[in-house]
Batch of 3 targets.
Target 1
Amino acid sequence: MAQSSSILHFSGHQHLRSRLTLSILSGKHVRIDKIRSEDKNPGLRDYEISLLRLLEKATNGTVIEISVTGTAILLRPGIILGGSLQHDCPATRSIGYFLEPLVMLAPFAKRPMHLTLKGITTDEHDLSADIMRTVTLPHLQLFGISEGLELRIKKRGAAPGGGGEVQFLCPIVKQVKTLNFVDPGKIKRIRGVAHAVRVNPQFSNRMIEASRSILNRYIPDIYLYSDVYKGDESGKSPGYALTLLAESTTAAIHCAEALSEPGVAPEDIGLKATRALLAEVEKGGCVDQKHQSLVLLMMVLGSEDVGRCLMGEPTPKTIQFLRDVRAFFGTSFKIVAADSSNSDNVQLLYSCYGTGYINANRTLA
């Protein structure tokens, strides 16, 4: 039993996922209290309990204690096991909510992970399965996690019915590489996936045409793919979405997406996604805002050397994540303006000294 001094205390339901992930990676016990204690419906939500169940499946020896009211939890982390897992996600959050923490944990498991998640594949709160496949996984490749890394979208599932299915395959590594990514390069190509399920398949073409009407002004290398799912593979509810990503000459990726809304034409969804992508590209840096936490965490876990990365301004979520990283790993980042002479430039250079984290769970060959 660990002494109370070695248990880290946090309050509130925000940033729950990142704190649980950091606890499992660092091996430090964590207690989170005051979870929606002032709310009319206090305590953990069904998707948060589902996430705890999933973390319990993915690890061995993890003890999770939830208070009677559900407003406090204590996590005593075990080892990350990996292997073949299956999990049904509740319809309140999409698969991205559950997959994001596991993308951070899977490379440090004992066995390569083969995870099947069922539920909603795209919603407005979390990263969609498309962004996970086309953007999140290439970010892991920056750190030398590449061979056998794959995400397959077997079935689409729009909210509220869900019915989607995603398979995530991740290899294990002994140690992640140190990142030195300071040249954002110039945007050289734009790729996109439009999907429409249980609605007129012409909707995806209409989104693509609207998006092209803006993007064609900038570069010629644009390929927007219409992803068609029929019958059982298209889930239980109607919906459509457009996911766009811009890739630079140095393999920096920026992404944006827009989802179908009631009473809004597909053309407007296409334009919304396109404008969001252009806004994301304007913010600059080598990593987009949605993936700041993932890249910063992998920099902390890198070999004992200085890792550097150029990014835009940190989001409030990233700022809190950096504070939590300091609490769990004792690592602080040095953040300086990339170009001090240009006052309009909001690009920042993040650098830290890696902890030299070694995957001790790995089965010794």
Target 2
Amino acid sequence: MWKLKLSQGTEPRLKSVNNHIGRQYWEFDPNFGAPEERAQVEKARNEFTNNRFQMKQSTDLLMRFQFARENSWAEMKVPTAKINVCESQVTVSEEMVRSTLTTALRFYSSLQAEDGFWPGDYGGPLFLLPGLNKDGGWGLHIEGESTMFGTALSYVTLRLLGERKDGGNGAIEKARKWILDHGGLTFVPSWGKMWLSSGNNPLLPELWLLPYLLPIHPGRMWCHSRMVYLPMSYLYAKKFVGPITSLVSSLRRELYTLPYHLIDWNQARNQCSKEDLYYPHPMLQNILWDCLQKVGEPALGKRPFSKLRKRALDVVMQHIHYEDENTHYICLGPVNKVLNMVCCWVEDPNSEAFKCHLSRIKDYLWIAEDGMKMQA
């Protein structure tokens, strides 16, 4: 059974400036929990599954069950006096206020960790691990309509984790139909194209070499934009792709509307499904992308400009290592944390930096009755 661990950090290569106070992560313990406690967890999971389209948000029942066991003095539910505020003659006594406040304090005390903080789920934007919609797709947040981005990444992830293309009680097939009905994977937006290594517009690391005083320097972007663009530009310039396994070949057959070798990737670079398109590309932007793709990229791959690319990659990795070390490999958020980790692996699979990243993965994972999700 899963157990919530609080303010602990015994893993190798793990560093902290406050002795890990406030850290929360889940750890699987096959011997944890009595049979009746495991049955309680299973019941909560089944109830969430059966009602997931009506009640989409979990209530952290696994954490609450654990705290109720550990804090036996604290009642999870305490009866309180109910007041009808619509009645004009209601008299609120001091005792009623005291009872209400005591109940509230007692409840929140039962959910408080020993060192003072309140652990909990912070799911954030749910393209990280979103909820399944009735139409078979996944959206950007728990109430969001299905998008190509959420559906494509969730489908590919499930297949990589071992789900068969006809598995998931029909969920995989429904998701595949949703993707194909909306044009196929060539219509996934830019972040999806990056992860799938297909149809990217140029992500130039050379921009990090520009003088900072220029308004187009990436360092002037919003923090989440620049810290995600940073590792993406490294992976793009390295032209890094994983091995083409039988599963990868199968995914290409499953999710594109044309045979992979017949796809017009030049056209695919600017394709985006209407569900994901918040603002269409201006013509000037498309012209810029075309110039970078057809002129800039070929030139940067040849001497003497190839030296510029090497220098840019070195600078980008310096920024990545600085971010990693400065945050003890937690990073700004889950997106750039995972991307930075991949960059460290691409640079050197046996590097100390990559090994330090591994110890911090579980800091971002949260378990509740709705399953595992990634926190933001």
Target 3
Amino acid sequence: MRSYIPVLTTFVVTLVSAHEYDQSTQIPLDYVKYPYQAVYYPGDNDVTADSVFSGITTFAKLPWVQCLGKDRDAAFDIAFIGAPFDTGTSYRPGARFGPAGIRAGSRRLTLYGGYNVPLQVNPFLSGLKIVDCGDIPVTPYDNKYAIKQIEEGHKELLHRPAYSPLGNSTLTGKPLTPISLDGKNHPRIVTLGGDHTIVLPLLRSIYSAYGPISVIHFDSHLDTWKPTVFGGAPSEQAAINHGTYFYWASQEGLIKNGTEGIIKKIRETVGDLPVYLSIDIDSIDPAFAPATGTPETGGWSTRELRTILRGLDGLFIVSADIVEVAPAYDTNAELTTMAAADVLFEVISVMAKTPLGKVEN
């Protein structure tokens, strides 16, 4: 019986090899076997079928650059940075895990190449250098120090020279000049929160380059409470939280006030001024994004918010954030983290289409 085993094994292997060979020879000319493979690093033409779920989880599988570490001199045009802070929240904590959750929810963004059909742009192949800088080191024990860490970390990235020059206007062909007050071509920073308190140090950083800024704010709450009303302000530090940060931003002269509105009124209010975009995930109805610290029913659907964001095409969005994503409250299907990633996909698509420069009169 043993003498027949090698013969049988050889026969089986021969059949398998012949079967595979026959398949490959019958593939039609110009047939693409896997038309929807993902690009591991967008733009390098290195196609790998398993790229969306393997390797280090960065936003949309972008290159990981240690911008606040060994790569302090690295230049970029758009950088994602995490701010894992949630000790300013008033109800459900957990947004410190937001940056990691959003990155996980973004893994499939380049599964089909990353082309944004409504905006007719692929931000990953637009010629801009887009990277993931990891997270700002944030202490969970001292809010005052943590807020300082976030401001300094953001400012370190913001004041780095942009990788790509502004170039010329696509409409007039004339050279573009920076819209910043200091006359420099700054990169754009997209911050992954974190509870909404982080916007105060982020606006302090933005002020250092652009002065008082117009803010487009999507939220289920105004977040302009006086500290004595929201939280009672038992201490100087407790007065700064995710319901009062806009109050303090206004007191410090960091923002320009505007009227409420959707798309048309936003554009009329902001015009051609530099604008900061802050998005609280709780502006989306909890049916679509349940994982947040203070959920409110009656919010937008994901389709509605993405449509509004596409309507901002052409605005000078200098930087942006998304906050209050708390993955511990998400469904097993990762609805909230995917929604957050998709919202940011719309944001960077708008950014990719509009350089931060103007033609001088």
